Each structure stands twice: as structure tokens, then as C-alpha cells.
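Bug: C-alpha cell stream looks shifted between consecutive jobs. Job 1:
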Amino acid sequence: MIYRKLTATLQRLAKTFPVIAITGPRQSGKTTLAKAVFADKPYITLEDPAERAFALEDAKGFLHRFRDGAIFDEAQRWPDLFSYLQGMVDEEPIPGKFILTGSQQFGLLAGVSQSLAGRVGMTALLPLSLSELPTASQSSLSLDTLIIKGFYPALHVRDISPADWFASYIATYIERDIRQVLRVQDLSVFQRFVRLCAGRNGQLLNLNALAGETGISHKTAQSWLSVLESSYIVHLLPPYYRNFGKRLIKTPKLYFLDQGLACWLLGIRSPELLALHPMRGAIFESFIITEFLKSRYNQGLPPDLYFWRDNNGLEADIVFESGTKLQPVEIKSGRTITGDSIRAGLKAARFAGEEALQPWLIYGGDDSYERNGVTIMSWRDCAKWAELNAEQFQPKTIG
């Protein structure tokens, strides 16, 4: 089994909260991780029609089997579960008693906010980070090969074609999740919407243009995008909110959370094609941003990542707060660092003035070093730096 960095966070939260929730996209490894970390608990999936029917017909009889706790997989399939668990944990608030998993964030969050607020430790498990990849994948795969392959665990432990796997993944996602939460008359229109989103990876979100090209209303596009976001297919990176005396861009940027999936949707099937594709830079950018997101989610932290762009041409691909300072990050997909790259890195920090830390420049090459006041960072090292940065925000054990 692949060791997941979220393990330590789950163990920490299970010492405090009676209910632990693990959400994330389908096939990210939630069930495997829950069974491994909480191996002493019985496992029940609410996608099993027989179990769900039992729960609906006789809730008390169903839950009586699990008075000592359990793992409930796809918990959002039985919304009443959250109310019943509230009564059980209030009566006997034992830390780490129940584990909930779900691939629809909004389903879990709705149940938690209505019934389990203050009783549940929320976590999110995305596909594998660079540091979680099996050693063979880390050492032998080139950057473009790795991006094409993507980061879902199955693609790194089974001998399966990424193209075959992603085709099945999208079909299953649409048939299972989309039919459950959206009344889509023509699923092919939704598939076109997803592909058009992939074509806008790394761009400022323009819902009007996206809706018009798909042939749907603005309201429908907004609804469909919220589903993609809540099921961890895409992430909307918000602009940094502080005004440094500039005219700010206030629109979020759209990023796919798995670059292999984005490539498949775009018809990019080989590393050779990706190397020449006009969207390679945007795909690489989403890869780096997702690594930062994974490091924060794995340590139980909110994303708190932003970008900066103003009307005067100042831009930083990532901005995050580090203490009282701001850390600007510039991302370049090229394998070599040029003078223009260095100037772009320095420019990325200029908007924050004295509040900016030394800028980072993450690129597609293999060496990490400092040059002219810029920290040059290989893509291979970005996971380590992101994890080290996230560690400073972790709760510290007292006593």
C-alpha cells in the first residue's frame, strides 16, 4: 500500500473529534486509507443497495450493529445518517468513533453543517502528491510522462493505460455523481462542458463565454461548475484580496486538479504531443499549484492559496501568507532558466513591496539553487518545499 501523508492528520484528529470525514475525488484512495488507518472498525459502503435499503427501512436496527463505531463509505448517499450520528456521539462522545468518506464534498458538508457541526474533523484526500508516488514513478518518469499519466493511485500500482483508465473514470463519474446531483437531460452536453473547462485550464474564469460555447445558460454553467469544484475535478484559485494601491483582477482562475485527466480531455495522449502542445505551460502551472494544495490538505489545512494580477502588468502565479509576509511564486514550464525568467520572478514580488519574501521560481528543470535574489526550484523539489511551508501552520501538541 502507498503511504499517504494524510495519515498523520487523521490520527491527530481522531484523538479529538468523535467523527472524522474524508472527502475527495473518486479513486483518490479514501476507502483504502480509511481501512488502513482505522483497521479495527467495521466497514460499510452506502453505495451497496442492500445496506442502503436496510438503513432506510430500519435506521435504528441498521446502526445498532455499529454502537462501537464504523467506517461509512459514501456517507452522503444516506443523508439521515448525520442526524442519527449526532445523537450517538452526543450520548457517548468517544474520539475517533465514526469515520465518514464521500466523493461529493457538498453532500458531506451539507450533512455536517446541519447535524455534526463541532463534532467532525474534516479532511480532503486528493490524488498522489509527488512525494507519495512509488519510488519507481518518482525516479524513472520524465515530467511530461508523469503529467500524462496523472496522479490517481491506480495508475501507479496497476499496469493500465491512462487513456483507458480516464475514459472509464469520466464515464463512471458522470453516470454515478452527475446523475445523482444534476438533472442533466443530455449528458453529452455536460461532457462538452467538462472538455471546454479543460481547454480553459489556467485561465481567468469567464462563465459567460463558457456557457455560450457550451450552449447553456449562465445559471446552468454556474451550477455545473460548482459540481466540478465540489467533486474535486477543478479548483478555482482566488485572487489575493488585499489592495496594494492597484486596480485588481477579481476573477478566479480555473485549474484541473489532475493533469492526466486534463490531458485526456484535451486529447493529449503522449508525452511527445504534450511537449509541443500550446497548453503545456498552463498544464504545468496547474500541476505545481495542485502540489501546493495537496501539501496543505494533507496537513489538515485550508487551501489559502491565491494569485495576483493587476491592470499594470504585475502578476504572481501563487501568493500565500507566511507569517506577516507574503510568499510570491512564479511558475515556468521550461527546462532552462533565462534572464527573462529571473526578471519574471523578481517582478512577481514587486506588487507586495517590503511585505514580500524572496520570490520562488519553480520550473521544469532538475536543479535547485539561488540566483540574483530568486530561489530557483526544480519541479521535483516543489512538493518538499510546499510541505515544509505547510508544516509551520500545523497545530502543535502541548504537554
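Job 2, same session, no restart:
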Amino acid sequence: MAPDAAVWECARSRGFAIVTADADFYELAITLGSPPKIVWLRGCDYPTKVDESLIRDQAVRIAEFLEDADRAVLILRP
């Protein structure tokens, strides 16, 4: 697995957002700001199907977040 800094730089340089359950990316976003934007699946100790459902259910909210230049992190919980 790639170190967090390498994933961060790859996403930043390509204009990607990161969807993660890893709190380290939250810390990077707070420290370094955006880009990339972080969608943090907080407390993610549930099955992948729950993640999928959460992301699908929050699709409009995620899209709005990605367009908001003032926000770096979106926290989602099931």
C-alpha cells in the first residue's frame, strides 16, 4: 500500500478527491488544505455494502461538497 503522502500527492496533482476511512487523510486536509478534497467515512467499521449505500445516499451532498471551494473535508457517518 502506498504511503499516505504519495496517495495525497497523486490525488492533488490529478484533481482527484479521496474517499477514505483513514483519519490520517483528515489530518492532512486540516494541515495542508485542499486540494485534494477528502470524503471521510468516519468510524468505518462496517461492511463495504454499508459504505456503498452511504455514498450512494449522499451523492448529491458529495457533489455539492466537491464544488465548494471553501471546504476541504466532508465527514460521513452511517
